[in-house]
């Protein structure tokens, strides 16, 4: 039976273990946890894992619980410190994205893992989804010819979570390029078969969310809740989505501000160049409601391959033949089916020494791209993307 050690048992890793990994193969146990919030962490664990011991340090957990693999699900600003600390154990690692939120962190991580034998699976489920994999297969087999242009879109219908939960703490997340676009830049580079080498970007911040309301204000304590469109009652009435019970105010000072570069972007555009000569664009909005869009169009001289995870379909148009084709995979899986494939890959790494299909290099490549995009948006200048040096 596989023995797992968990460092930071939050919502994401808790769900991944309890639901996704358990659905793929329940023959494992969480035997050790490092997390200061034991009571809340235990609420996220399976009944069969309640015997797990909570430790004050990673070293103590590894020595005493003897796990076969480690999962890191801390807050974003701690992903790099935890990854640096566990490299020496050479156990298979599941590392949440983004793998770093600053250039200093990314460079430390790159230096530590450049010659490391520790296998790391980065949590990039989108590149593992059936739609993405079919698109990559078609592109590699020449469906579009040379990849010349890629357009990526991410219209996030649940974007209020980045202003009413801990995600609004900019010091922890580093903003939504790193929190959200890190997924998209990763799969876009995989589609292109080439890294992004230069990027320009702009953004909108503080136009929809954020404001001067008290930092700890909730709807239940707000005299304006009756007329506020973000109150639970009005969200229900308007079918506007989001949290439908009492929540932190999305117009709070705690969301940060533009002047200090401490608030999440509500919309952003990126224009980029690839090492193989292709060009591309990407747009992300987090204030849309109900109908989301997430996917890409890849074009070349022979045709266009496009897909949308929310519509759950892929379309192929041949430029020089009178044919177009639409395919649809199965529906209803977490992260559009990518989480299941992450779990299968992680089990294979543990049991068979399999290779991670979303590597630490992929994680760093995405972080370097996100940091360049953030810098480009802040400065209004084209930024050269640092490349992973190994």
Q: What would your notes on this structure say?
A:
With 390 residues, the chain is an alpha/beta fold. The protein has helices at residues 11-24, 38-43, 58-65, 79-86, 103-113, 130-140, 161-164, 170-173, 176-192, 232-238, 338-352, 360-379, and strands at 2-7, 28-34, 53-54, 69-72, 93-95, 120-122, 149-155, 196-204, 267-274, 279-285, 293-299, 303-308, 313-318, 324-327, 383-384. It folds into 3 domains: 2-125, Rossmann fold (3-Layer(aba) Sandwich), CATH 3.40.50.720; 129-208 and 260-329 and 367-384, Dihydrodipicolinate Reductase, domain 2 (2-Layer Sandwich); 219-248, no CATH class. The strands form 2 sheets. Strands 14-13-12-11-7-10-9-8-15 form a 9-stranded mixed beta sheet. The chain has a 6-stranded parallel beta sheet with strand order 3-2-1-4-5-6, with helices on both faces. 44% of the residues are buried.
CATH superfamily of the largest domain: Dihydrodipicolinate Reductase, domain 2
The count of strands amounts to 15
Q: What's the average pLDDT?
A: 96
| Class from helix and strand fractions | alpha/beta
| Pattern of helices and strands | EHEHEHEHEHEHEHHHEHEEEEEEHHE
CATH fold annotation of the largest domain: Dihydrodipicolinate Reductase, domain 2
CATH architecture of the largest domain: 2-Layer Sandwich
General form: globular
Task: Write the SSE topology.
Layout: E1 2-7, H1 11-24, E2 28-34, H2 38-43, E3 53-54, H3 58-65, E4 69-72, H4 79-86, E5 93-95, H5 103-113, E6 120-122, H6 130-140, E7 149-155, H7 161-164, H8 170-173, H9 176-192, E8 196-204, H10 232-238, E9 267-274, E10 279-285, E11 293-299, E12 303-308, E13 313-318, E14 324-327, H11 338-352, H12 360-379, E15 383-384
Parallel strand pairs: 1-2, 1-4, 2-3, 4-5, 5-6, 7-10
Antiparallel strand pairs: 7-11, 8-9, 8-15, 9-10, 11-12, 12-13, 13-14
Helix pairs in contact: 1-11, 4-5, 5-12, 6-9, 9-12
